[in-house]
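STRUCTURE REQUEST FORM
Protein name: Quaternary amine transport ATP-binding protein
Source organism: Pontibacillus chungwhensis BH030062
Requested output: structure tokens
Priority: standard
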Amino acid sequence: MSVKMRVEHVSKIFGSKPKSIIPKVRDGMEKDQILEETGHTVGVYDASMDINQGEIFVIMGLSGSGKSTLIRCLNMLNVPTDGSIYVDNENIVEYSPAQLKKYRQDKIAMVFQHFGLFDHRTVLGNVEYGLEIRGIEKEERKKISMRNIEIVGLKGYEDKYPGELSGGMQQRVGLARALANDPDILLMDEPFSALDPLIRREMQLELLDIQERLQKTIIFITHDVNEAFKIGDRVAVMKNGKVEQIGTPEAILESPANEYIENFIADIDRSKILQAEHVMIKPNALVSLKDGLNVAVREMEENGISSVFVVDRQRQVQGIVTIDDAVNGIRSKKSLSDVITTNIHMVKKEEYVNDLIPKALDSKYPLAVLGEDDRLEGFILRVHVLAGLVGDDIEDSQTSAQAVMI
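Status: completed
Returned output:
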């Protein structure tokens, strides 16, 4: 995966002599002391990160952490006091005014927390606004805008005004307006924080659906750890203007960098963060229908397991057979197809553990985890789901479960 944006040692200090403050922060002076003694505010200090093409990169932190200051450096609304920001290998900090204008028009767009809509414009008029400023002809900008209105699920509302829409719908308009400019990079500064919880969850899922189709590079700001870990491919955690840790949600959950991050994620709802692929294990053995019952019994005995999945040549699940059913089938001179159980739950590897709980509790067989083309990638037992909920070591639970059943 290629790097779309590289942030190198970026600092942003607010005050009359910002560059003079950099050595003080480097020497360990805290931001509160700097404010008290110099009147300068440390927004961001020495932030570095690579943001990959097509990923959702979340910057997470509490109020005052520097996350919103940093995201405004990425479109140069905040000019960094120090450091470099490379987009497609060009340092935008060194851009001329004309280059910066083109960068903002063509490569980057921003979605705000409070929607930023024009009350006197219809939905269509709001979505068209950026295209209008760029001088796009009326028919073309209407065509582009209508396509993006449909993408965000507002087809049929193009003639409505913002005051006639719910908060969630207004946020969709803001998103459609940003997408209409077809930016490479989408900045989203706490876009869902003003929404009620139900609408917020809907918008999170909507964003993931849109990203699946459009594959934009999205930089998303939030103070909500559950939101960050749900939508982020990777997450940067900030505190007092500094980046404390960068990693995938699973990596941060597994190995928090320090006590601050441990406390930050302590109350996270793991069932809404971990996906099936994070708690599944790969089977030691598989059989096909042509293998027959004797092969199935041998595979189970050699691997010390009590059941095995039956798959076809494309590794698509046909069912499952237990050791007892296989042995009884041999005695009764039945075939493998006669004794396999097809009434099993199959789940996608992207499904969240929270959604697997009813299926895991309902079934005496493992859950089959499917990947691309519905190929079997792994399995999940009830113990895996519970381990994901309570934060037990997943590998330990997998090891103990492997000896029981697959």
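Reviewer notes: The radius of gyration is 26 Å. Residues 3-272 form a domain with the Rossmann fold fold (CATH 3.40.50.300).
Form closed.
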